[in-house]
């Protein structure tokens, strides 16, 4: 990361002031996080000033950002941590984060990070069905092998309860065949 957090906050300030997702409640959470966890960055008196509800949220946020830039690199870094903790979708849409993500992997898709996080399997439904079929086949082989040893499988008989008529007939036929021999 070539830019310092101070430089990044300078660049992101305009975006943060314009973003409507940072409402009064979220700005208060950020202020409280900085005040409680890092009182050397934001004292009680400063936190009270920035939490004044008589001042519009956009003005309070602009003053907070200017104050943090004046405090230095550590204050800017801790602001980014608080932003990431409380308002993740805003954090990942910051211009510096988008630029950093694009510079790391220019071939990424246009999907948002929250969408990418919840993708469990990108191979499709046929892959899932084939894996599931293999698992069922292995289970049937295991139970059928058990039936040869014990002369009848209770597991196959129990498995037949929840299946359709034809599948039930096949499973029952397999359980009865070793008994006939």
TrEMBL record:
Q: Which UniProt keywords apply?
A: Membrane, Transmembrane, Transmembrane helix
Cellular-component GO terms for this entry? endoplasmic reticulum membrane; mitochondrial membrane
- Name the residues that span the membrane: 126-144
What top-level branch of life does the organism fall under?
Answer: Eukaryota
CDD domains per record: CARD_BinCARD_like (cd13785)
Q: What is this protein called?
A: Bicaudal D homolog 2 (Drosophila)
PANTHER family reported in the protein's UniProt record: CASPASE RECRUITMENT DOMAIN-CONTAINING PROTEIN 19 (PTHR34765:SF1)
